[in-house]
Amino acid sequence: MSTTELPDAEYVEAHPHSSREARAIAEAGTVLRVQVGSGVHGTAITGSDDRDEMGVCLEPPAFVTGIARVPDPAAASGSTVPFEQWEYHTAWQRSGGLANRSGAGDLDVIIYSARKFARLAAAGNPTVLLPLFVPEAEIVAVTDAGRELREGAAAFASMHAAARFRGYMGKQRSGISGERGRTNRPELVAEFGYDCKYAMHALRLGLQGIEYLSTGRITLPVPEPHRTALREVRQGQWSLADVLGWYDELDAQLTALAATEPLPPEPDRAWIDGWLHRSYTRSWAQLAAAG
Known about the structure:
Layout (H helix, E strand, L loop, with lengths): L19 H10 E6 L2 H4 L9 E7 L12 E2 L8 E2 L3 E5 L17 E7 H9 L3 H4 L9 E4 L1 H8 L8 H18 L8 H7 L3 H20 L10 H9 L5 H21 L8 H22 L1
Parallel strand pairs: 2-6
Antiparallel strand pairs: 1-2, 1-7, 3-4, 5-6
């Protein structure tokens, strides 16, 4: 299946951001769409992974300066929600719907409105920052506005990211150690004694958090030798004790680095606001010219 041409299947009737109307807005206004999953990190295992894509779009003026909304398939007939994003998961199209976990060969897509993307990236959200740094080869679609966004990645770098990376890591450590008492991959726990894929993602976050706080950038894929080590963890080749030991080392480094405040305290909100204003007004002018 092409990553840019999705099947026109019936949408699941239980998710507020999966309507056909939201899809039309997202696809028509996309300025950037990239791969953000294990494939771009270099930690994918052939035949085992889904594909995750994230995008940014510019919605029409009625959804920004007006009161237009999109249908909410998760609520009663006639219910609506503001347009903030569109989500598509091929796993949802199978029997079981939203309860299905994405697996090998599945495609997961989320396209944010530019305003929501900017808010999340400016707050230091580790996953939302990724489209700013993926290699050119991982770009599915990009416009001039999308390229300008990527060129302005430094505007989003701030110490807000320290709390976000540490927060994500903290939640994941409890999952690795079993403190949370549940996992999405019980088959991995049964085989290896812990969810090794979950553990790999927690360690990756630590490595990328350290790099981001140090430089304001994230190198993708993960540089060696850490990439090989992460793949070993992913395949259950490390003991739980060794995984937790590496996790604690990364967390200590991240904590110490955060205390030095190497990034600006706040993102460059003037640049971000300027990019949003320029991008939206140009997009709307093009829409008006097209009739």
